[in-house]
Amino acid sequence: METTDQVLSFEQAMAKLEEIVSRLEHGDVPLETAIELFQEGMRLSQLCGSKLDQVERKIELLIETEQGLQRNNFNPVNEDKGE
Q1: Among its keywords, does the record have Nucleus (predicted)?
Q2: 10/35 Cα distance (integer angstroms)
Q3: pTM metric for this prediction
Q4: In this structure, are residues 17 and 45 in contact, taking their beta carbons and an 8 Å threshold?
Q5: Gap between the Cα atoms of 12 and 18, Å rounded
Q6: What is the reported pLDDT for 35?
Q7: What is the mean pLDDT of residues 52-66?
């Protein structure tokens, strides 16, 4: 059985997460509501992370070599080190 989270796209989950962050940043919600929003935000954050992990595992670069096409796993560039 799929939950609502499983059918959300990455973009939909991010939009909901951004809305929650905005509401929490304004600080005008009651404590109980803030806790519920925080919990939902954590769940959405984990969902987005999971979706990104799935996509990263699927991404493979095809490099043409003398032997034909070779499949290599995608290795993200380390932006912090300027690589």
Answers
A1: no
A2: 23
A3: 0.64
A4: yes
A5: 10
A6: 95
A7: 68
